[in-house]
Write a structure and sequence with these properties.
The structure is a single chain. The chain is of the alpha+beta class. It has a single domain, classed as q2cbj1_9rhob like domain (Jelly Rolls, Sandwich), CATH 2.60.120.620. 25% of the residues lie in helices and 36% in strands. A hairpin with a 6-residue loop joins strand 9 and strand 10.
């Protein structure tokens, strides 16, 4: 079993260091205002999601985003199937992203979900889950496109785990430019004394204290 799978099973998240080269991170962030690249713009404060803005890519995705989505899905599909089995749910995530998206589209979920998020000073993202329909892949990834050593301060990636009959546990996940964090979308299996049980997960971003922070979100199920 890979180190990535081990970390996901143990903690519900894992960091993939230097997944995207710095130059490609900067190039993707620089496309923020490119006409025709995105299908939808969301201003977070209008919906109570926090403060900041994100934009969903339209199909066809940029080649870098498409390649990352396909390669990560291929590695994560076996983990997703094991998690489903541990929770006594039907498995059945196919090995390739294209086959899984066929399932999403057959269920009426045809809109692409990869996105870029932009945070200025005092922006933040409330704890949430990215669920867009009945068809849901249980893992997703976020890539930090900006350099925390140069571009911004604050803006830490946050994960909160709500455990049955226990208080919630929070964690800050440090990221460098180009690092990806892979994490549970909604829930993950956790082994207890009586077998596996569900643990609810939420993620968000703390307040950016200064500067400008861009991230790429990679969600594998499409939206309805």
């Amino acid at each position: 079993m890979s180190a990535l799978a081990d970390a996901l099973d143990e903690r519900g998240h894992a960091v993939v260091p230097a997944l995207v080269p710095a130059a490609e991170c900067r190039a993707l962030a620089a496309r923020w205002d490119e006409a025709g690249l995105f299908r939808k713009r969301v201003v977070m404060q209008k919906h109570g999601y926090g403060q900041g803005e994100y934009r969903y890519f339209d199909y066809p995705l940029p080649p870098l985003v498409q390649a990352l989505r396909e390669s990560l899905y291929r590695e994560l599909a076996p983990v997703a199937n094991r998690w489903r089995e541990a929770l006594r749910l039907p498995a059945g995530f196919p090995a390739e992203l294209s086959a899984y998206l066929d399932k999403c589209h057959a269920a009426g979920q045809t809109k692409p979900t990869p996105l870029v998020l932009r945070y200025e000073a005092d922006d933040w993202n409330a704890l949430h889950q990215d669920v867009y329909g009945d068809e849901l892949f249980p893992l997703q990834a976020t890539v930090l496109l900006s350099d925390p050593a140069r571009d911004f301060t604050g803006g830490e990636f946050l994960l909160v785990e709500r455990r049955p009959r226990l208080q919630s546990r929070g964690e800050v996940v440090p990221l460098a430019q180009g690092d990806a964090v892979v994490f549970a979308v909604r829930e993950r299996p956790r082994r207890g004394t009586r077998g596996f049980h569900r643990v609810q997960m939420r993620h968000g971003v703390s307040r950016v204290r200064q500067g400008l922070r861009f991230t790429l979100g990679l969600i594998f199920h499409d939206a309805g």
